[in-house]
Amino acid sequence: MNQKSSEWLEYVKQAMAKNNLGKFLAKDKLGGSVILEWEKATVKEPGHSENMKGVCGVACKAYTEVEVRFLKKFPDVVEKEEYYKQFKPLFANGVEHVDWKLVEKEMYTRIKQLHEMDYSQFSAEDIYFFVKVRDKETKKLLGFTIFLIKSEYSQNSVKDISIGLIPEAQGRGLGKLLISSIFKIIPSVKRIFLFTRITNDKAIGAYKAWGFTEDPSPLQDPNFTFKKEHWISLEYKIENADKLQKAAEGFQNS
User: Fold this and answer.
1) Which of 20, 40, 103, 179 is the most buried (most CB within 10 A)?
2) Over the stretch 96-112, which tens digit does the pLDDT of each residue have?
3) Coil, strand, or helix at residue 222?
C-alpha cells in the first residue's frame, strides 16, 4: 500500500468525519437553476445502498445505450468476459442475427442488478461520494455521478466511477457541473481520473472539452480490469486545467 495514498484516504476521513452531506445551488449553461446534493458513504452504511438504488433508473437509461453500442463494436466479449456471458445465448446464431431489442432489454436488467446488488464484500475503508443534480423547482432527478477514494489511489486523487443524465437533460452542461462538484466538496482534490468506453465518443469529447487528457499510466484497480482496446483512461489535473474549478466557484451553499 502506498503510504501517501493511505494518508490521503485517512485525511479525507478525518476532515469530513462530521460532514456527510450537503447541497449547492448552481446554474446550467442555459441559465436554469439546479440543486446539486451530495452524500458520503461507505459500503457498510445504509446511504450507499440507498443511493445506488436511488440513481438506478437514471443509470439504466444512460448506460444501456452506451453498453449496447460497445457490444455492437466488440461482440466477441460475450465469449471472453464474465460480465457479458449472460448475453451469449443472444449471439448464438451470429452477430448478423442478433435481436438488438432483446440485448437492450437484457442490458437494462444487468445494469439494474448492479445497482441493487450487495456491495458489502468490498472494502469498508473506501469512501464514496454520491452527487445528484435536480431541477430546483420540480426537484426532479436529472442526473448523478459517483466519486470514489481508495487507499490505492495517489495523493489528492479521486476516481469518477459513474456518471449519467436522463435523455431530456442532455445539452444543459449538467455533466460538467456534476464533475466540478468534487472541487466544492473536497477543495484539496488535485486530480480526477476515470474510464469510459472507447466507443463512447460523445462522453470522450465532453471530457476533453472540460480539460481531461489521456492517462498514459492508468491504475489497475483490483475491482476493475482495464483493457486498452475497450476503455480509454482520462485524467484531469489542476496544474493543467481550470475549467472545472471555475465552475465549482460558481456554486452557492444551500
Assistant:
1) 179
2) 999 999 999 999 999 99
3) coil
